[in-house]
Specification:
Number of helices: 4
Shape: globular
Order of helices and strands: EEEHEHEHHEEE
Helix content: 10-25%
Radius of gyration: 18 Å
Strand order of the largest sheet: 1-2-3-4
Structural class: alpha+beta
Distance between the termini: 27 Å
Amino acid sequence: MKNVFIGPERVVRIGPWRGHPDTAFIVTYQHELIDAEDIKKLIDQLEQQRYRRAITAALAPLEQEPFIASGFEPLQELVLMKRALNSTVPRAQHRLRRHFRKKIDDVLAIDAAAFDSFWRIDAIGLREAINSTPKRNLRVTTHLPPIGYALSGVARDRALSLIHI
């Protein structure tokens, strides 16, 4: 993934979508709203780099508007879940241990078993997810080899969580 300037002080990150070199993955910075003109510049740059399609990371409704105005269509909607925190939390079924980022093949194998090729994360995507927040934890189950992983992170008022068991 690399930073691409699309306007004065407006930057997005782009890279190939999970092993599909003809599909660009666009990640916007949450503190910067981009407009339809910025997106047009971005599309021009993506075409120059020989991308044929583009997919964005999850976008809040306000962030979606200029993309929709530029011809993007919703692909999936996120499911937000809630739970009252005034009750007992069930005991975890799997014990976790710290995982070292240098040995990510087992995490990639778990992800490959869980998802089809479109949603499967590759090494670049996993590193991008790990580095997307300044505070993060990558854990795997204590099984050998691991049968699940959890990646969580926090940046200001945003949180990331990927759990696959």
